[in-house]
Every structure is written in C-alpha cells, then in structure tokens.
Amino acid sequence: MRELQPPFTAEEEAALREALRGGDVMSYPTETFYALGGNALNPALVEAVYRLKQRPPDKALLLLVDGRTIAELVAEVPQTARLLMAACWPGPLTLVFRAGPALPEHLRCNDGTELGTGHGTGLGTVALRWSPHPVVQRLLALGGVPLIGTSANLSGHPPTHTWAEVRAAFPSAIALGADDGP
How far is CA 38 from the centre of its chain? Predict the structure, then answer.
C-alpha cells in the first residue's frame, strides 16, 4: 500500500492517474470521512469495493462528482435539486436522483422503487455529492471520471477519520492512499 501526502509531486500525480485508469482501490479524505473507492466507471473497481466493505450489492455506492454539469449527465436533476446544488455544492450534501440514461448499469441502485413513488420500476437511482476537499478535487481533475465515495470502513462499522484507521481496516487491500490528516 503506497501512502501519498498532498501536495502531490508530479510523480505522485502520475501514479494517481495510473491507479484511476487501472481500477486500483484507493483511499482518500473527503470533507466528512475517509473514502474507499477510485474510478467509478470501472465495474471491476466497484465490485472490489463492495467485496472489501462486505457491503450488500443492493446498497448503492455514493459517487463524487465535480459539479452540476457532471451530475446532469448521469442523473435526472429536477429544478428543486438545482437550487440545492447551487446553494450547497461543493459541500457535504448528498442528493439522490433518478438515474439518467448515461449512467452505467453497474452504478445504478436498482432497489425496485421509483424515486418518490414507492412503486417498482427498476429505473435505478444514484447518490451524488460534490466534495470540496482539495484531494478529491485533485483526483477528479487527474482522472476525469466520477469517484466512488463510500466511507472507508467495513459495512456496518463506524467510518474512518484518519489514514491510520483506514490502514487498520484494510491492511493490504488498498493500492494507494492519500493521507491528509484527520
């Protein structure tokens, strides 16, 4: 497990880009907790995160995006949500949307209910957040892809607040980790 500390050198940024392209599981701080994830568009990475967290596959994983434009590419964003996004993003606000046609199937939460109705449709939903954390912002810029932003913990356990807690929870499963303090 390679540990990186911001600000990243050019060599470290190259390693982060490669990890995002290669689908490596990574850990990085957000404005709330440390996240476990990487390139959300890589189905194998998503599967690995579910396996590592021991998370049931019917519980969706949060996506970290870099703005409203990306959100509108992958989700159906109603006007009321646009107002919340303008007021609260970037920030610790997660919004759940009906999945848009561009969202890959492996990222949809297909819990059988249509958002807001309780009726089964199978359309799927997606949870999105725009994190203001500088490490997340740098990873989004380096990779050009949304990131999985689930907390770096075993399913049902408390979230991790430090890089040391992440290492203790996942001693050998993470390729790269960004340590930016608590």
Answer: 7
Tokens at 172, concatenated: 């050998």
Q: What is the pTM of this model?
A: 0.90
Q: Is 35 helix (H, G, I), strand (E, B) or coil?
A: strand
Q: To which residue do tokens 């709330």 refer?
A: 32
Tell me the pLDDT tens digit for each residue of 10-55. 999 999 999 999 999 999 999 999 999 999 999 999 999 999 999 9
Per-residue pLDDT tens over the stretch 131-180: 999 999 999 999 999 999 999 999 999 999 999 999 999 998 899 999 99
Dihedral, CA atoms, 17, 21, 23, 29, nearest 10 degrees?
30
Structure token digits, residue 55: 């998370």
Q: Edge to edge, what strands does the sheet with 150-151 contain?
A: 2-4, 176-178, 26-29, 34-37, 150-151
Q: Which residues pair with 115 in a beta bridge?
A: none
Question: Could you tell me if 30 and 134 are in contact, meaning their C-beta atoms sit under 8 angstroms apart?
Answer: no
In angstroms, the CA 23 to CA 48 distance is 9
